[in-house]
Amino acid sequence: MTPGARVAAAAGILEAMIGGARPEQALSHWARGSRYAGSKDRAAVRDLVFDAWRRRRSYGVLGGGDTGRALMLGAIRARGEDPRVLMSGERHDLGPPTADEAAGALDTASAAVRVDMPDWAFERLCDVYGDEAVQISAALQDRAPVFLRVNLGKTSVSDAQKCLSEDGILTEPHDDVRTALRVTENERRVKVSRAYLDGLVELQDASSQAAMAALPLTDGMRVLDYCAGGGGKSLAMAALAKIEVDAHDANPARMKDLPERARRGGHEIAVVSDPSETAPYDLVLVDAPCSGSGTWRRDPDGKWRLTAEGLADFPTLQASILCDAAKRIRANGILAYATCSIFPDENSNMIAQFVTQHPQLRLSFEKQWLPTTNGDGFYLAILEGV
User: Fold this and answer.
1) Residues 8-61: pLDDT tens digits?
2) Class of the CATH domain delimited by 147-203
3) Equal fold, 147-203 vs 206-385
4) Domain 206-385 class?
5) Rounded CA gap, 369 and 180, in Å?
6) What is the pLDDT of residues 93-148, one digit of tens each?
7) Domain ranges in the chain?
């Protein structure tokens, strides 16, 4: 595919998304009907689509509308390129811009538009973070960095880097998280690399790694990952101490790859369907369902679909899950609560109310990571029995 044809394909996919299709659904539909597109074409089109979807509001201003074509026109203008080169009207290219498709003035648009945030969400962030809301929102406009967690039970950070480099994958250590490597080149090769297949590294965001490192894990503990999902945090905890880790999720299908991932990493993680039968535990981790706002650069569709009303529903669900999880800890045990959210409604505010209603637990640790080039937005609270 030519660069212009990739732009045209991305515009069509974006149009489907504007009509309500999920990104993966729209991309898969296009790929099935575009057998001529090679792997590099599909990757390039995917990047164009997600870049435009992250910056839907600002690209819309620059492109003069909110259609797939307008978003791609805005993307080209944002890069300072001449749209007529990629929108020539020849072969599979989109037609050239018309007089009605003049760029809007982004510098006079609202702050929420300039940082590509829904008005209600930006107002909420401003109320909480003040002027820092602009910086937080701007971080979510760009593609997320790719981080790997080095399995220190199998290798060292330097040896993992060397092994990755043999497959052309370049990395650099994280300044604050000793297990984390930032991928700087050839990130798409990670899952076929020897380091990954041999369990030397796992894909995991640096903030999530930092949160797991903050847990008070000691040898001999029995630990339950209560909302395990794919099991990344189960694996991270198992690598930090000689502990027994059980994994549970309300949707067991999410954990289907966990046994193989544990095998690669050299861990023994039991998948349990009913934690009440295996309780009590020394520590229970609840990585609760949430808005995902700290990871919106990975899932920009979530940013545009979430409403203020939808956000208000999460704390009730989260508190309910915490109540259930609290029943699984031993006397004076530890309950850890995590989300990938940056809204206090789901984090500090919810935990403060929960502790008030559960005086047998006290808050011993709390931290909010904000999305930056060093990791996603993430929250951790540690509650200890008294």
Assistant:
1) 999 999 999 999 999 999 999 999 998 888 999 999 999 999 999 999 999 999
2) alpha beta
3) no
4) alpha beta
5) 15
6) 999 999 888 899 999 999 999 999 999 999 999 999 999 999 999 999 999 999 99
7) 3-109, 111-141, 147-203, 206-385
Residue located via tokens 């935990």 = 351
Tokens coding 114 = 């300039």
